[in-house]
Design goal:
With about 325 residues, this protein is of the alpha+beta class. The chain has helices at about 30-45, 95-105, 170, 195-205, 210-225, 245-255, 270-280, 305-325; strands at about 5-10, 20-30, 50, 60, 65-70, 75-80, 85-90, 130, 135, 140-145, 150-155, 175-185, 235, 245, 260-265, 265-270, 285, 290, 300, 335. The protein has a 5-stranded antiparallel sheet, with no helix packed on it. Bound molecules: flavin-adenine dinucleotide and NADP nicotinamide-adenine-dinucleotide phosphate. Flavin-adenine dinucleotide (FAD) binds near residues 119, 229 and 234.
Length: about 325
């Protein structure tokens, strides 16, 4: 079957900021054959290409030229390995949160700290998603990609994905790979990660230490703290937590003794949300956008916002943090086009 391209497709429901955005052409990719067909079509009619999953890490402009391709490859396979390990292969189009839920029901553990992160499996390796002390790179064995240069699919081992803090080879080279499947090494034995304070606090007040209990606690904490994109448009954390050198950290600590920071490699990771909050931005509103009232790291769309407004607000915050703390913030979601 040939690919079906739709023209002038509204993307409002396909980006969690809820921005009004129109794709010149839109297509769903459900198989590797669809990818080959798309590639052939792009050979004939070269156009810009945006790959999209759930649109929860994107800031879209009003017009998106060329093709928007939603990666909708399905599939979930589990292979029992020696000991208690399980190799799980998920299609890029599978929904992230419901995949974790389904694995938990089957007694397969390891992803529960990353519950309720919106989006699809295929985007998880792109920025090496992470939450509550676990990053997806800690659980990935390999990532299957379609390489636009070599015109074929192959598996990239974890070590070749160049994973780093909210970063990977996929984020650094958007145009090189389309992720088709992700292979995880998980376990039938619980190895609970409870390093983050909200989880430790919950344990002190009686939370059982089990994957299901951690999953439930993470969902509860996130629902209390984060705006639901269905109600209030957002793309999660708008800025990455900056990692600074030991000496820069010591200078900052002398100036701001309460600064929130965690050791990261040879340096320190600063809590960007704390810095933005300290500067009084929480709850700030300008035009149709603002800073969430409970979480300073999250910029929100009150309904009429757009990319220009978010860009302007982010610029004001970044400049203020640079002037006050001498730290350059880096934006986490991708702006397109
Ligand atoms: P999209 O936004 O559709 O795409 C993101 C990027 O990946 C784009 O560059 C896109 O081109 C590319 N891409 C998508 N699919 C593919 C593919 N198959 N192959 C190659 N490239 C692809 N992130 C965290 O790390 N931790 C969190 O705790 C977290 N919490 C969040 C909470 C909220 C409320 C929101 C709105 C966002 C949060 N995020 C978090 C950010 C976001 O959910 C993740 O980055 C998620 O993995 C994005 O998935 P998506 O399918 O929506 O990707
Ligand atoms: P939080 O618990 O208020 O902590 C603030 C920041 O400090 C976090 O960003 C986290 O960094 C860091 N941190 C806290 N405890 C840490 C520890 N024990 N070791 C190392 N670093 C620690 O954070 P939050 O905003 O409520 O978010 C909770 C978790 O969900 C975090 O892991 C966060 O990354 C994740 N989250 C991510 C997004 C997103 O869009 N990227 C959105 C919402 C929530 P890290 O960010 O490196 O974990």
């Amino acid at each position: 079957m040939s690919l079906v391209f739709q023209r002038n497709v509204p993307l409002k429901a396909l980006n969690t900021f809820g921005f009004d955005s129109i794709a010149e052409r839109f297509v769903r990719l459900e198989s590797v054959d669809d990818i080959h067909a798309l590639h052939a079509s792009l050979d004939e009619n070269p156009s810009p290409l945006l790959l999209i999953g759930g649109g929860s890490n994107l800031v879209l402009g009003r017009q998106v030229p060329g093709v928007v391709a939603q990666v909708a490859i399905a599939g979930i396979e589990c292979e029992e390995l020696d000991g208690d390990r399980v190799r799980v292969t998920l299609g890029a189009g599978e929904e992230w949160h419901s995949s974790i839920e389904s694995l938990l029901r089957q007694g397969i553990y390891g992803l529960e700290n990353m519950a309720l992160i919106p989006g699809c499996v295929g985007a998880a390796p792109v920025q090496n998603i992470g939450a509550y002390g676990v990053e997806v790179k800690d659980r990935i064995e390999a990532v299957e990609v379609y390489d636009w240069q070599q015109r074929r699919c192959f598996w990239l081992k974890n070590a070749d994905c160049e994973f780093a803090y909210r970063d990977s080879v996929f984020k650094r080279h958007y145009d090189r790979y389309l992720i088709t499947r992700v292979r995880f090494l998980l376990s039938r034995v619980a190895e609970c990660v409870v390093t983050y304070k909200p989880l430790r606090d919950a344990i002190e007040t009686g939370l059982e230490v089990s994957p299901q209990a951690i999953f439930d606690a993470v969902c509860r904490i996130r629902r209390e703290k984060l705006p639901d994109p269905v109600v209030l448009g957002n793309a999660g954390s708008f800025f990455k937590n900056p990692v600074v050198s030991m000496s820069q950290y010591e200078t900052l600590k002398a100036k701001c003794p309460n600064i929130v920071a965690y050791a990261e490699g040879d340096g320190f990771k600063l809590a960007a949300g704390w810095m933005i909050d300290q500067r009084g931005w929480k709850g700030f509103r300008q035009e149709g956008v603002g800073v969430h009232e409970h979480q300073a790291l999250v910029l929100v769309n009150y309904g009429e916002g757009d990319r220009r407004q978010i860009e302007a607000l982010a610029g004001m915050i970044s400049e203020d943090i640079q002037v006050h703390f001498g730290v350059q913030l880096e934006i986490e979601p991708r702006f397109y086009p």
